[in-house]
Amino acid sequence: MKVGFIGLGSMGYGQAMLLAKSAHDLTVFDVSAKALAAFEGKATLAKTLADVGKGAEVVGVCVRDDDQVNECADALIPVMSADSILLIHSTVKPATMKKLAERAAERNVHVLDASVTRTVIAQDAPFVFCMTGGDEAIAQRVQSVLDAYSTDTIHVGPLGSAMAMKIANNLVSWSQIMIGLEAFKMAEAAGVPTEKLLTVMKKNGCLTPPMGGFIQLRARAGEAETSELIASQSGIGEKDLSLAEALGAGAGAPTPIGTFIRGIIRNTLNSLAKR
């Protein structure tokens, strides 16, 4: 298939690189020239957002938030072919997905939730669980694209449902990450050998993959690249937990723990980045 991919950040880079190694014909775009340069010789490098959509059968979007997704859609929908498919990998409001679908339908472009969550830390093989929402028959048409980077896929239900699932998942993930960092800081201050705490938590199931990833970053805090990565996650965490707050409020199911964590996540991660 002729596939476009926009957003070559910490998650999108791995997805796009695996697509580049697949049988699909890939075109990529990112606002970062450095991120784009990594695909030189591996994929077609687009000069604009719109260039990604021209002639593509499928376009994946993996950018930061609702505003960036809408910016991509503004450029893509007018140029995408009829019966082509727009996959939104970013975590955004379910309402945003529904508005996108209404706009895209005017040009007979299909829109799917395609939210992703990491299942393994490596990126040289499939590393995400992809959750789709929307027309299941349309989701089946892009299965070979999803398989390029997904260890698992699941169709959740109507458009917006996979985004709601991802938001719920992120509420759990960020809560785990923050309590894990707090536990290791406390243990270290109390003289507990953290490698032994890690051993116990692996055995009793307390150590989750997202928590483990941040614990590893914690051990490397102080290195310039690691500190930059940790600091960049604070804004993502705030965004994810704000989405959980809004979803919970709208559904009549408040998220007080998520609200508390959102209030401390930036300071906690920025302090960690400066260790």
Outline the structure in words.
The chain is α/β, with parallel strands linked by helices and 275 residues long. The chain folds into two domains: 157 residues, Rossmann fold (3-Layer(aba) Sandwich); 109 residues, N-(1-d-carboxylethyl)-l-norvaline Dehydrogenase, domain 2 (Orthogonal Bundle). It is 55% helix and 16% strand. Strands 3-2-1-4-5-6-7-8 form an eight-stranded mixed β-sheet. Helix 8 packs across helix 12. The longest helix is centred in the middle third of the chain and has 29 residues. The mean pLDDT is 95.
- Tell me the CATH superfamily of the largest domain: NAD(P)-binding Rossmann-like Domain
Oligomer: single chain
The radius of gyration is: 19 Å
CATH fold type of the largest domain: Rossmann fold
How many helical stretches?
Answer: 12
- Kindly estimate the percentage of residues that lie in beta strands according to DSSP: 15-25%
Number of strands: 8
Key words describing this protein structure:
275 residues, alpha/beta, 2 domains, Rossmann fold, eight-stranded mixed sheet, 8 strands, globular, 55% helix, N-(1-d-carboxylethyl)-l-norvaline Dehydrogenase, domain 2, 12 helices
Brief characterization of the structure:
This protein is α/β, with parallel strands linked by helices and 275 residues long.
Please specify the SSE layout and strand pairing.
Blueprint: E1 2-6, H1 12-20, E2 25-29, H2 33-37, E3 44-45, H3 49-53, E4 58-61, H4 66-76, E5 85-88, H5 94-105, E6 110-118, E7 128-133, H6 136-141, H7 143-149, E8 150-157, H8 161-189, H9 194-204, H10 209-219, H11 224-251, H12 256-273
Helix pairs in contact: 8-10, 8-11, 8-12, 11-12
